[in-house]
Amino acid sequence: MTAQPLRRIPYTKPSITDLEVQYATDAARNGWGEHCYDYIIRFEEAFKAHLGVKYAIATSSCTGALHMGMHALGIGSGDEVILADTNWIATAAPIVHLGANPVFVDILPDSWCLDPEQVEEAITPKTKAIIAVHLYGNLCDMNALLAIGERHGIPVIEDAAEAIGSIYHGQRAGSMGRFGAFSFHGTKTITTGEGGMFVTNDPELYEQVLTLSNHGRARNQTKQFWPDVVGFKYKMSNIQAAIGCAQIERVNELIKEKQDILERYKKKFKEFQIGNYCFNKREENCEIGAWMTNVVIGHPSLNSMISESLQEHLKPLGIDVRPFFYPLSSVQPFQHLKPQNPTQWWSYKIPPSAINLPCAHGILSQEIDRITSCIASVVN
Ligand SMILES: *Cc1c(COP(=O)(O)O)cnc(C)c1O
Prior knowledge:
Keywords: Aminotransferase, Pyridoxal phosphate, Transferase. This protein has 12 helices and 14 strands. The chain has helices at residues 18-30, 38-51, 62-72, 93-97, 116-122, 142-152, 203-213, 238-249, 251-271, 306-314, 346-349, 365-379; strands spanning 55-59, 80-84, 101-105, 127-133, 156-159, 167-168, 171-172, 179-183, 196-200, 277-279, 286-287, 294-297, 322-323, 354-356. It is globular and about 70 Å long. Strand 6 and strand 7 (171-172) form a beta hairpin. Helix 10 crosses helix 12. By secondary structure, the chain is of the alpha/beta class.
């Protein structure tokens, strides 16, 4: 007789309450005709208030928000956009779709975000933007990046898909760059299933993206079916926005739980006396939303293969750990951008030693216990 398998511990899972169900039901029942934008407008207003920005446009994804924003900045054929090598492809794909070229720079070993010194070195006359991705909710060195942007007249864009709840010197992630983009994919801290948000404080950029987001029809265009430019179709639906309205009402609670999960892991790692490791880094005067708890075990320079052995041991036990992002310059579409000395890059050194730990809303303390004890048995 084999023992009853323990509950599978998911890597992420949204927190959906009666409130989300109630709003979504109302949108499905009543949100049509003259009410078809009600929840969208309400979600945008609530999101602006949370973030402290002037303008927000709900979108079908973060990728779409980035695509429209970069298009509005005039990024196109042959231009260059600088971003970190450690990243999800969603940040790089719209650059390629615009006919521009991503330029990858290395990350810093502790924040896992792009290294401002390398950003400045990578600037050429073709550079049209720098994308600051707040990886796993950690924060980029925004003061340095904004100063570089200003010195060279290059806009800094924030991909804050993973950084709801992260605060840099009093300002929320996503509110500091020329524009910011958020994701409400089902794995993110707040979700609408699929969805995103474009945010900015720049009134002209807002008007441009608003026009682009509505198939190129300007707000003041009175003629029906009369596009002013060729735009995009990246709108969020009212039903998704209804779920978003409930999530944003609960945003502080949802962020707090993510932060608590990170703290609970830290405590457990101490208790189990796991040797050398580091978790998501919180810089001084900053708060991190801790979307995804990550841990780097041992010293990355030792080039351990701990990530693989942890995945091998934990997955069969129903513990859904995931690999740290592979360097974009190592994946098929970008192999021509591989650095000459990849073994010197943190983007290559960290993933073999790092792992995403399950941090779903609703994870139980016993589960964090169980995960940590399994890790200890592999590592210690
Ligand atoms: C999730 C994610 C995206 C993509 O978001 P979508 O809403 O799926 O388009 C973009 N950038 C980063 C850093 C992400 O984590």
